[in-house]
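Our preliminary data section would be incomplete without showing what the modeling component actually yields. Below, a chain of 284 amino acids is followed by its predicted structure, encoded as tokens that our downstream tools consume directly.
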Amino acid sequence: MCQHSSDDGYANDWHFVHLGSRTTNWRAPCDGQQRSSGRDEDCRLVCLRVLAITERAMRLRRLALAFALAAAGNALAQKESRPDPTWQDEMAKGMVPYRQLSVDDFPIKDAASSKHDFYIQGAIDPQYHFIIKLANGFQYAYIDRWAVFSGLDKLKTYRKSSFKGMKAGLPFAQAILDLNEICARRLAALKPGELPSARGNSFEEVQAELNRKVKEFVDAKYKESDAEIEAFAKATDNGAKEKKVRELAAEIKKRLQATPAATVPFTEPNTAPIPSPLSTMPKS
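Predicted structure:
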């Protein structure tokens, strides 16, 4: 079997081609000595049997290698992935859960450069976990767990001290936050199979590609939501048309109530915490 051409004692592509040539040109001698036609046929049958065994062994070896590479990629993904996110983590970054707004949600920031008397910024933070699979020499990344946090960005929400009509402006601000929440709930309701996947030659490459595709995916959703918010602001003259604000805000609230709350729920610190979907779903 020409073991000097083997890989760690295993047959490789060289042996596959070597044995295959003996089956196609059956009169070629197996050991360099001239043989009769009957012995040649015997040699051909032996080569066919050995070829079948070699092919099976090569397939098993490649399958084992595929499993090993996929397991190594998943182990690396587990090692490099962050701990399951919590609301405490999000609040540390300035996000507070979705709520019915009050004047207190708009701290005074006179240093803000905005021309508006007040400004509201919704927040959406998707988090995901992925697994690696190997096929045809490539690594494929698939999202298997998906969680979306949503609420208000306290760091970018404010009012100016000279503005005395914040209470009257709350319905306008609430409608904007409700539109943001509708977007977040729709994102959170997506199943892993509806989310992007990626292909690469290495773990680092496939991870970077997946991150890029997820960002493009959610940015497209944000763009749709931003367009709705802009249309609402234009229709109400940035909240100046109070009657129109009440009318459109009521329609937006109905849409929100009809959208299942699939985002990560929030509980007060003195109550039993509800784990995020990333921690409640089975680990890969």
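The longest strand covers residues 138-153. DSSP finds seven helices and six strands in the chain. Preliminary results of this kind motivate Aim 1 of the renewal.
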